[in-house]
Each structure stands twice: as C-alpha cells, then as structure tokens.
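FIELD: query
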Amino acid sequence: MSKTMDFKAMYKLAEKYNDADIDAQDKKTQKEFKEALDVCCERKIPWALQKRGYCEYCGTDIIPNDWKGAERDLGAYYEMTGDPSAANSLGYIYYYGRVNGGKPQYKKAFHYFSIGHVAGGIYESTYKLGDMFRDGKGVAKDVRTAIRLYLEVYSDTVGQYNQGHYECKHADICLRIGSCYLHGEGLMKDDDEAYKFLREAEEAIRKRIDVADCYGDHTVLEKIEDMLREIRR
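FIELD: result
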C-alpha cells in the first residue's frame, strides 16, 4: 500500500478515474491511480477489476493494452457479477484471438456473445452472433438466423438514429445488411438495396465519428467505402 495514502483515500482515487479520462491527468496522478486501482483489485473489489480490465482492454498511458490482463480481470468481474457487458467484451477478445496468438477461439466467443445477447440485449453481441451464424464460425452455418438477428438490431437502432442518438450501432448493422444484399447472403442479391443500406451506414458512421469517434469507427468507414466502390464499379 502507498506510504502516502490510506486505503480509504486509495479507494476514492481509484473510483474517480477510468480508461476514458486517466490519460488527461498529470503523471503523478496517473501513477497514484494505478497504485490505488491495483490495491483495490488485490482486494477483489468488483468495480476495480472491471475498471482495470477496461484500461487493459483499451490501453492507457499508465496501464497499457494487455489482452491477457483484460481477460483475467474482466473474467473475474464477470464471474462475480454476471454483467453481460463484460461477457460481450470477453466475446471480442476470443473472437479475434487476442489471447491465443491471433488464432480465434470461436466456441468461447459464441458462449460469451450469447450471454451478451440474451442476458443484456447488447447489440454488439447480437450482430456478432449474426456474423458467426452467417459464416459458420463456432456454430453450424445458418444464414437465416443471421439475417433475423441483424434485422432485430436494425429495427431498434433505426429509431435511435432517427431521434438523433448518433452514437448508436446503426452504422454497423446497416453495413452488415448492405453486405448481405450485395453478396446475396440470406437475402436476394440486390445492388439497389445494398447501395441504400450502405449509404445509410456511411451517413451514420460519419455522424458517429463527429459525436463520439469510438474505437474502430474509421475501420468501419473504410469497409463501407470499399463496398460502395464495389457497387459503383
């Protein structure tokens, strides 16, 4: 424990910051935050494990990206709380093989995305399950189920988007539906419908970048623009 802070002070400091704002603090505060957060994690405080897990997941100046650490801490937090958002994050870790030398662990990803979808109604989990059914990754290929999951997300996000909630997942789901029309996956191949959904996706992602600029948004924009070029050709 820090020689300058008792546990009550460390608890308060660890509570104060997170992965979104710790980089804006001075170096002394960053160091003290990490020390305080580590002490809270040693005491198995659930919110501290969650907070350190997302620092490791996203990467900060004082707590660099560490996929193994994120798996450990978010896994411990999930086991304590059953929080579907942690399950969703674990699903992404396993889907992209981030703790397995780049080799996806689809069975684990499917397990955690299913929890995110069923227990939390988390759109990212729902459309990633759709991707897995569409491509037969970790589950038997079932394109009809994939389309049903995509349309389920679309029906929710279109309303959010039209009400000005531009940070929502509307761009991601429009991209997927547009791709299905473009390539005839579960939907009849239709370039006009594909173009409509992809233009909707392009508009939505640009607005999301303007208001939030979330992790991975520029990659999503690149995918949308690539498909639009394919249609125009």
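FIELD: remark
The chain has eleven helices and no strands.
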